[in-house]
Amino acid sequence: MQLLLPQAAAFLINHRYGCHYSPPRSLAAPRATSTLDDPNIQHINQLLMDKKQELLDGLLDDPSNLNEQSPLSIVAADNDLRDTFLTTEQRVYETLLSSRLDLPFLNRAIVGPSEIEGAGRGLFAAEDIKEGDVITCYPGDALLCELPSTDEGGEGDPSDLEDDENEAVDEVVLWGRHVPKGDRWDDDTVFDGSKSSPPLTSYAVTMSDVYSVMGHPSLDDNPAYIGHFANDGAGHLAYEMPDSPRNIEASLELGLDTESSEFGVEDNIAAYVLKSFDVANAMHQPVDDDEFHMVTVAIRDIKKGEEILVTYGPDYWISDYAGHIADAEDDS
To answer: Which position among 261, 282, 286, 317 has the lowest Cβ density within 10 Å, counted as fewest Cβ atoms?
Structure first.
């Protein structure tokens, strides 16, 4: 999911959203239609409920059963701290969110070389897919868990996972038990990447105010859990100058006034967002209100062989570029 990074992306960093832009047409995000008619979603929900009940029943036999299945940090001190306040309900939730269920019936997509220049691998439809159908799951191979900081001067109580008033936040990386120990990255690699791999956080999708799910790029052979390979079809626009040929072309297609003297970075952001929404054919969303799993759902009919595209949003590209700039400065 790495795209080429022209220096013009600095415009997005410098300006962020310091402008007030009124797009020429409704800027509505794509929405998935109801998935209730898809028997696969019903099957996934049932398996999640069965797994939840299994976890709760196991507590009656041996309270340690749940601990043995719940995700862990590779930092022992993080696990010790969490053991002091984590409730059974929270531990069950984390276990379901970080698990890979046995879903042999969900084989609608495959991973292959992306058709987007510089994007690496992408996700493709292995069969015709109807609007509203679940394509695959977005795995929680690792969870990014935000906790109120317990450092000196921090304002939070670690047991208060939902308190938005706490500004000081610690981020803990929790690995699903199915991930081989050799594939569990240290925290520096998760957040900063390595010479051969982007940060794992570049695969993060927000599930709630506390949790984000991250798919591991090495775990790519299960068609039921490959949602993390879906690319953004317009991400290249976020890295280009407002007056670049491709940005001008996209802006004209979207009805933006490229001749205006005020045409600039805000239009660049708008062109990206509108184009991304325009080409997207899928989106990531929780499987249900319990948010035990993330799934990738078709927002229109998709033909076999078509690349599956979603919208990452401007914040992703701004953060991604900022990380590359920081890496370049560290190397210089």
So the answer is: 261
* Residue 70 region by backbone torsions, left for phi larger than 0, else alpha for psi between -120 and 50, else beta: beta
Residues 177, 73: Cα–Cα separation, whole Å: 10
d(CA 256, CA 25): 9
Taking the C-alpha atoms of residue 11 and residue 321, their distance in angstroms, rounded to an integer, is: 11
Q: Residues 6 or more apart from 143 whose CB is under 8 A from it?
A: 71, 94, 97, 98, 173, 174, 176, 211, 212, 213, 214
What DSSP string runs through 297-331?
EESS-B-TTPEEEE---HHHHHHHHHHHHHHHHHH
Q: 153-189: per-residue pLDDT in tens? A: 444 454 455 544 445 568 999 999 999 999 999 999 9
Smallest Cα–Cα separation from 176: which of 69, 53, 285?
69
**Contact, 143 vs 97, CB < 8 A?**
yes
8 Å CB contact between 284 and 212: no
Output the pTM of the full model.
0.77
